[in-house]
Amino acid sequence: MDEQESLPPHVLIFPLPLQGPVNSMFKLAELLCFSGLHITILLTENIHNRLVLHTDITSRFDQCPGFQIKTISDGLPDDHPRDGGKFLEVFDSLRTKTKTLFKDMLTSDLLCFDLDGKERRRVSCIIADGVLGFTCDVADEISVPIFCVRTISPCCLWIFFCLPKLIESGEYPFEDDNLDELIKSVPGAETFLRRRDLPSFCRSGDLTDSNIQLYKTEGQENSRAHGLILNTFEELDEPILNQMRTICPNLYPIGPLHAHLKKKQTTLRPSSNSLWAEDRTCIDWLNNQLPNSVIYVSFGSIATMTNDQLIEFWYGLVNSGQKFLWVIRPDSIAGEEWRSKIPVDLATGTKERGYIVEWAPQEEVLAHPAVGGFWTHCGWNSILESVYEGKPMICWPYFFDQQVNSRFVEKVWGIGLDMKDTCDREIVEKMVKDLMVLRKEEFLGRANHMSKLAKNCLMEGGSSYSNFDRLVKDIKSLSD
Ligand code: UDP
Predict the structure, then answer these.
(1) By CB neighbour count within 10 A (0-12 exposed, 13-18 middle, 19+ buried), where does 248 fall?
(2) pLDDT in the model for residue 82
(3) Fewer CB atoms near the end CB (10 Å): N or C, the chain?
(4) Mutate to test the pocket of ligand 1, among 381, 389, 399, 404 (most ligand atoms within 8 A of CB)
(5) 15-43 as b/e, with b when 16 or more CB fall inside 10 Å?
(6) E strands within 271-380?
(7) Which segment of 77-81, 98-102, 295-299, 381-385 scores lowest on mean pLDDT?
(8) At 189, phi and psi to the nearest 5?
(9) Contact, 455 vs 388, CB < 8 A?
(10) Cα of 122 to ligand 1 centre, how many Å?
(11) 4: part of which helix (H) or strand (E)?
(12) For residue range 373-395, what is the model confidence (pLDDT) as tens digits?
C-alpha cells in the first residue's frame, strides 16, 4: 500500500449559505474531523467573511491539522443583500454560476488538502446540502462518491418526497380555501396533517411556483447520492424515517448535531458559528432569574415581522406577567422607527420583566436553568436545540418547513403549542401562561422525556452514535 492510500479520506463539505445549514454542517465537519478524516469545508465568500467577523474560525482550528476552510463565490456582487427573504436570489445564483466554478475547483486541484506542504491530496468524498443538486451532477461527472445532507426537518423532507403524489391525487393545489382540511397523500400523517401545515410555499396554489418545481424532485435528487445524512435521531422521527427509507434506503440520522459535537469535543473550545455578534450580557441577566421562570423568544436568522405584529407580540408577553428574554434581530422588523414608537406601558413592562438583545448565544440560553420555555419560529435547529434541553415550545412558524414542524411539536410530540396563522396579543398571553404556568408540568414532563431520549442516542451504542460510526466506516470504504 503506498502512502497516499494509507491516509484518511479527504472529505469536502459544502453547506447551503444560510445560518441554520452553516451551523449544523460545521458541526458535522468538526465531528468527522474528530473521527480522523481530513476535512475541507467550502463556504461562500460572503458567509466566510461574516464568520471571520463574528467568530473565532480563523484560530479555532489551529490545533486541527486535518481541517481546512476554502471559499467559493456565490456569484453575486459583494454588496448584494442576502438576508431576510433574499435567499432565492442567492440560491438561483448558486445553481447557475457556482456549479461551473465548483467543478473547476475540484478538477484543477484548488480544493486539495495540503499535507505539511509536502503532498496535495484530492477530494475523495463529497458531503453537500441535498438542495444543491448540482453537486450530485459534478460528483457523477468526476466520479467522486457523494452523500447528501438535509438540515431541514425529516417531516418536511417527507412532504417534499410526497409532492408528486399530492399533485397526482389532485389534493394539491387545493380545491377550496379550507385550510383545516386533512391531507391524505402523505403516508404516516393522514390523521393530523392539515393543508395549513404544509410548507408555506404550498399556500400559493401555483404549480409553476419555483419552490414547488424545486422541491418536487427532492425524492429523486436525494436518492442519487450514496446516502442521506439527517440532523435528527431515530427515537424522535422513527415513523417518518421509516417512510423515507422506502425512497432513500440509506439514511444516517446522526443528530442532534450540536450536542453530538459537544460529546466528542475534547480539545477544542465550544464553537460558535454565528453570523451576528452574540450579546452575552443576557447570560448575566439569566443568572439572576429563578429556575424555569423565563420564556426565551427568538425567531431565528431569517424571519421578519411587521411593526403591528411586533406590538401584538410585545403586549402579549408583557401582559402574561412572565419574565422574558427576547432576540430582536436588527433586520427583522421593517424600518428602524419601531424603537421610537414603543408605547410607554410596554417599555415599563419590559424594564420590569424583560431583556432584549439583537442576537443571543442560543444553545447556552436554552441550556440555562432559568429558561422554562421557548417561543420559536420552529426552525429545525432551534427545535432540536430545545428538544435536547427539554424546553417546551410555543410555535409561531414563519415559512418553509416551520409550518409542518410546529404541527409536529403540538400533535406528534406533545411538547408545545402551535400559534400558526395568528398574531394576537390575547392568544400570546394565554399561550405563554399555559406553557409557563397552567400546563407547565404536563409540557415539562414530555419535554424532559424527549430530552432523555436525545441524550441517550448520543451515548455509546445509542442510535445516533451508531449511525455516525456507520457513516465514518462507509466514507472510508467508499474512499478506498
Ligand atoms: N441562533 C443563535 N442566536 C440567536 C438566534 C438564533 O445562535 O439569537 C442560532 C440558533 O441556535 C440556530 C440558528 O441560529 O442554531 C437558527 O437556525 P434555525 O434552523 O432554528 O432557524 P433559521 O435561522 O434557519 O430560520
Answers:
(1) buried
(2) 83
(3) N
(4) 381
(5) bbbbbbbbbbbbbbbbbbbbbebbbbbbb
(6) 294-298, 323-327, 354-357, 371-376
(7) 77-81
(8) -125, 15
(9) yes
(10) 33
(11) helix 3-6
(12) 999 999 999 999 999 999 999 99
What are the backbone angles phi and psi of residue 372, rounded to the nearest 5°?
Answer: -110, -5
Report the nearest atom of ligand 1 relative to the CA of 298.
Answer: 5
| Cβ-count burial 390-419 (b if 16+ within 10 Å, e if not) | bbbbbbbbbbbbbbbbbbbbbebbbbbbbb
363 C-beta closer than 6 A to ligand 1: yes
pLDDT higher than 50, residue 1? no
The answer, yes or no, to whether any atom of ligand 1 lies below 6 A from the CB of 83, is no
CB atoms within 10 A of CB 183: 22
Atom of ligand 1 nearest to the CA of 151: 19
Residue 243 makes CB contacts below 8 A (sequence gap 6+) with 158, 187, 188
Nearest CA to ligand 1 atom 6: 300
Q: State how far the Cα of 387 lies from the Cα of 286, in Å rounded to an integer.
A: 20
The 10s digit of each residue's pLDDT in 191-242 is 999 999 999 999 988 898 888 888 888 888 888 999 999 999 999 999 999 9
Annotate 228-239 with DSSP letters as a single string. Answer: EEESS-HHHHHH
Q: Give residue 25 CA to ligand 1 midpoint distance, Å.
A: 13
Nearest to 42 by CA among 65, 76, 64, 10: 10
Q: Is 274 in the pocket of ligand 1 (CB under 6 A)?
A: yes
What pTM, to 2 d.p., does this model score? 0.94
Residue of 281, 175, 160 lying closest to 221 (CA atoms): 160
Query: Which among 16, 19, 131 is the best mutation to test ligand 1's pocket, defined by most ligand atoms within 8 Å of the CB?
Result: 19
Question: Residue 146: its pLDDT value, please?
Answer: 97
Q: One-letter amino acid identity for 160?
A: F
Cβ-proximal residues to 14 (8 Å cutoff; 6+ apart), any chain:
41, 42, 102, 126, 127, 128, 129, 132, 135
Q: Check pocket membership of 17 for ligand 1, CB cut-off 6 A.
A: no
Report residue 211 as a C-alpha cell: 419552490
CA distance 346 to 342: 7
